[in-house]
């Protein structure tokens, strides 16, 4: 399947030296829709949540994150002009069965549930935020750490035989202490040691685009700190609910957890 960038090159509207960074268009639950906008559209929303808009050249695009819970079929985006229809295609994610030694991470005690509720609200407040973009052109994301991708995003998970929510990030197995860097410039908007996520850093790239890095062994940044692409933000670890050392890399776009691999230049 051709990407929007390849189509523009083939049509003579863009040369190879003018290729800009846009995420991959993958219209599935947990995917991304890259939508060219007509000149009369200046604002796009989904369920009252504003959608990221970028203009890397003369064409403007809405970059819409499709929530993992979205059923197959049509959904509608609101604009200041005509609505935009998105067709969500079927996509089968794998299943994953994990054995966790600490039973509290499978069936938490009430005290732990209370702690999780506070932490979840703190993170959700970040995911629903919408700040000015930290970029002029949409950033060309890089990998946050070295290692083979596990293709774990979207997997239906079973912990000790009990079904839980689909996996909303990408796991990268790596040794404890390996560097984790910012995949794009942004501002640190969250730092914490969470019950499930362990030591965690959240980075705001602007316009509702948030990256998350979990299970760290060390955090090298503080809340409010500005990061440039490639700057070290922490070290790989195995804190929180894990079965081994790895980095959990999550991406949230308009409060939808989407596949981080779609941001990488293929």
Structural commentary:
There is one protein chain. The protein has 266 residues and is mostly beta strands. It has 2 domains: 4-88, Immunoglobulin-like (Sandwich), CATH 2.60.40.1590; 95-263, Glucose Permease (Domain IIA). The protein has helices at 4-10, 110-127, and strands at residues 32-36, 44-46, 49-50, 52-54, 61-65, 73-79, 84-88, 95-98, 156-159, 162-164, 170-173, 179-181, 186-194, 198-206, 209-216, 218-219, 226-227, 232-235, 246-253, 256-258. Strands 11, 13, 14, 15, 17, 19 and 20 form a 7-stranded antiparallel β-sheet that branches. A 4-stranded antiparallel β-sheet has the order 3-2-6-7, with no helix packed on it. The protein is globular, with a radius of gyration of 19 Å. The two termini are 13 Å apart. The relative contact order is 0.18. Residues 30-81 form the Peptidase family M23 N-terminal domain.
Terminal CA distance: 13 Å
Please state the structural category. mainly beta
Q: Radius of gyration, Cα only, in angstroms?
A: 19 Å
Question: Which percent range fits the helix content?
Answer: under 10%
CATH homologous superfamily assignment of the largest domain: Glucose Permease (Domain IIA)
One letter per element, helices H and strands E, the order comes to HEEEEEEEEHEEEEEEEEEEEE
Find the count of extended strands (DSSP E, 2+ residues).
20
Beta-strand residue fraction: 25-35%
Give the overall average pLDDT.
85
Count of DSSP-assigned helices = 2
If classified by CATH, what would the architecture of the largest domain be?
Answer: Distorted Sandwich
Count of the domains: 2
General shape: globular
Pfam families: Peptidase_M23, Peptidase_M23_N
Protein name: M23 family peptidase
Domain M23ase beta-sheet core: 166-260
Domain Peptidase family M23 N-terminal: 30-81
